[in-house]
Amino acid sequence: MEQKIISINSVSFSYSSSLDDALVLKEINLEVSPGEFVCFLGQSGCGKSTLLRLIAGLEKPTAGEILLNSTPIKGASLERGVVFQDYGLFPWFTAGENIRLALEQKFKDWPKNKYKEKALEALQQVGLSEKIYKKLPKELSGGMKQRCAIAQAFAIEPSILLMDEPFGALDAVTRARLQDMLLDLWTRQDPKKTIFFVTHDVDEAILLATRIIVLGQSPAQIIFDCPVPEISRENQFEDLEILKLRNELIRQINKDVAAHSLNDA
Ligand SMILES: Nc1ncnc2c1ncn2[C@@H]1O[C@H](COP(=O)(O)OP(=O)(O)OP(=O)(O)O)[C@@H](O)[C@H]1O
Ligand SMILES: [Mg+2]
To answer: What does the DSSP 8-state code read for residue 35?
Structure first.
């Protein structure tokens, strides 16, 4: 049987460290193979970021376990790169220094001059020029900061990339550009990274993912899990199979919203 890179086994989670009524996630089971691009969809507040934080090792399951290559995850690690919506760059370091710092932590035995060289290369890969190396994050636009964060995450060559609504704060044009850039970076690498990507946007999920998982709320459970055929931006709204999938995803999300608003009434 193919080796799974991540196995989530009966994971429940509560921020109050007890298994009573404050459960955020309930008995999540999920197996992911190397190279999958998994998008999580679900209502705001359902627990998507929490699940990502658990995979990152920033939180521990209250019950169950998460295995990385068959070994339980214990704490955060540079094997899992993280990109959050607020970019995650240190404001007092320049864009280039941020990337260099991450490289120094990950690749401790490189010769000294290699760090800057690789940081510049990483910036170039996301379409940023050498000038950007010396700019502080506050001197950059949102799209540039997000490019830097992605450059940094890819530069440390993690086997898993965790992305929490990384394009949520961007305008539509910049967002489309960065989606293409991310797909390009992901496709070019061999072997491909395993990506977990949270979004509210059904079309973004369909464009990027090889697999989409819808989380229901209160507490979060997997209510839908499906593969996504490879598509291009051009045929995204023409392909009948894709349109059917889009409708089904929207139906699943709305069904969950309706079920919970009835409970709340
Ligand atoms: N640090 C925390 N302490 C206590 N409760 C928390 C904490 N972080 C999140 N929660 C609660 O856990 C639940 C899930 O939050 P989470 O941030 O995972 O949702 P989300 O699906 O990522 O939402 P959004 O789409 O709005 O980002 C929410 O009810 C939230 O209030
Ligand atoms: Mg969130």
So the answer is: T
